[in-house]
Amino acid sequence: MTPSPTIGLLARLSGYAETISRVAVWFGGALTIASVLLISVDVLIRKFLGWTVGGADELSSYAFAIATSWSFAFATLQRANVRVDVLYQYLPVRLSAVLDWLSLVALGVFMAVLTFYAYDVVGASLAQGSRANTPLATPLAIPQGLWFLGLVAMCVVLALMLLRSSVALVTGDIATVKAIGGVRSAQEEADEEAAAGERMVKGDAA
Prior knowledge:
Layout: H1 5-48, H2 56-77, H3 93-128, H4 141-170, H5 174-181, H6 186-205
Helix pairs in contact: 1-2, 1-4, 2-4, 3-4, 3-5, 4-5
């Protein structure tokens, strides 16, 4: 059966969202590594030269917050978020699919509320010209704005996931609902670990 244009469009948009989210998570990882290197350099300089770079702890805290928010979307697309599935695995497939859909709704509501208040925080910092009470005196709107944009990206991805899963649920495409919002099965996790191991072996061989 040929999928409808709407379903095909949603699938393509999901592909774009995953690509962008993958880039964002690499960006977050680079920020984390940079903050680790900065702290390491600061510790070594303080130990052997007796002076400090200054602001390493502040900048690393900003990096952690930004990296975290920009990683949310990719983690959700990969279904890496924590789910309690003690009873879930024993439920009928259709009922579990409805619960998968409801879990996306609940996560979407939570993220929408969080993003709304994050917007208030950034807006207040901009309006008041707030700066960090540190030697760097960082304009708080800059790290807060980057953190807020990560939350916005998460909301956009969640909206797309919810729209796609809603269409799939209405049309009876249970497999797609579970592929979007279901709990990862032990087989899926085993296959992923096997693929990762194979890539490592090929990398060592090269």
